Amino acid sequence: MQKREVSKKKVDAPKKSTNPHLGMIYIFAFLFLMMAGYLAYFIAFEADNVVNNAYNRRQNYFAEKVIRGDILASDGTVLATTDVQEDGTEVRRYPYGKTFSHVVGYTSNGKGGVESLANFSLLTSDENMLTQMMQEFKGEKKNGNTVTTTLDMTWQQAAYDALTSKEGAVVVLEPSTGKILSLVSKPDFEPAQLEELLAVPAEDKDKDSFLVNRATQGLYAPGSTFKMITLLEYFRENQNLDDFSYECDGVIDVGNYDLHCSNHKSHGNLTLKSAFAKSCNGAFASIGLGLDISKLNKLTDSLLFHAELPLALPYNKSSFTLSETSTDFEVAQTVIGQGETLVSPMHMAMIMSAIANDGILMQPYVVEKVESEEGKTVDEAKPEKYGNLISATEADILVQYLSEVTASGTASRLQSENYDIYGKTGTAQTGVDGVTNSWFVGCVTVEKQQYVICVLAANIAENDNNAVIITNNLLKYAMSEK
């Protein structure tokens, strides 16, 4: 029997596409998806910021169609409003003038403060459609939305009065939420008269410096308030703080330079807590000389030096300069808050807020909500956590040491039966004999409610009222209204 041969057919492999346009189709499809994704992101997160930008010309169109809305304090007090004259002229009014000048801001010669921050909301009308149609039909302008801020009338007025005529700043924050309750900067100005003020000829090149918001944009040597950070790094490198002791005779020799304690005072034998409470420069210079400088740099970075702050108001970055090649004297100067370190009052208040809030920094904010003319809520802010700047354990230790400052140290005059308080003082040399910058930053608790306060009195005479006296007056004024 012959075997039947089975024919085997060759099966060809699938041919690869030779369409020369397919690759381009994929590329364009990918680009289209990327553009669609970015457009969605832009609409969700960036659109309002772009429209609200002072350089966006669309705002001029909005101003032609909408009467600028009011700005209110947290209790509903009107801080900025638009009066419409009989001839249709609109005049922006600021009932509390200088008291809120930097934080509420201005609308002539540019914009500043909340006027700039909430510009889009103030020039947007969310009245009901029927009302808007009637206004359009009559040729009338629409009513802009109302912006309610977190600003507290009592704290703001007390801060403004306590700072008197001194150059400087006051910041009051609610550490549990990040609400900005008060923000004062001096020199100040009348927002409604800004155009006239800027038109006055003057030879002084710094004549416009009153526009600088010293609370957020002013950078100053922190003085002994920086010892909080030096103490924290010492704790991280030396867990047993009870082992520390130092004999202070009022001066320490560092690199052929003499570093003195305030008023050349001799503090005697000190523990770490008493050295911190009395703000002994010698003790903290010696501590600094034993620290790991690279670790200290990492700590300052984590505390937002050289970093973007979670703050919508204009600000300048704080800076910290120290390296492994720094001399002993440069190290000693820096760890007590001199050297090249610069920080803003707002930044110091944010660090203290994290300490007061178990190490957690809440993002500071000043716009509480936006409402239509009819009272409908359009947008409302919610407290938002920025992150843990330090651990809860570290925060607790710092609170213990800061409490000693107000109990027996350089801020003991702040003790009161009406509230509990802790904090740190600081005095920084300005380079001019007899002229210093004076600091206090701390936390006061009134009926279980915490408030962080930072006071800076800039360029004051050594015998003038310092930041502790200003803080004392601030608390007296505020507590009398509480």
Describe this structure in words.
- There is one protein chain.
- The chain is of the alpha+beta class.
- The chain is 35% helix and 21% strand.
- It contains 16 helices and 19 strands.
- The strands form six sheets. It has a six-stranded mixed sheet, with no helix packed on it. Strands 8-7-19-18-17 form a five-stranded antiparallel sheet, with helices on both faces. It has a two-stranded parallel sheet with strand order 1-5.
- α7 packs antiparallel against α16 (467-481) and α11 (281-289) packs across α13 (328-335).
- The mean pLDDT is 90.
**Class computed from helices, strands and strand pairing:** alpha+beta
Give unreliable regions as ranges: none
Q: Numbering strands along the chain, what is their spatial order in the largest sheet?
A: 4-3-2-6-14-15
Number of helices: 16
How confident is the prediction overall: mean pLDDT? 90
Considering DSSP H and I runs of 4 or more, what fraction of the residues is helical?
Answer: 25-40%
Biggest sheet statistics: 6 strands, mixed
Number of strands: 19
Global morphology? globular
- From the N-terminal CA to the C-terminal CA, the straight-line distance is 117 Å
Rg, rounded, reads 29 Å
Strand content: 15-25%
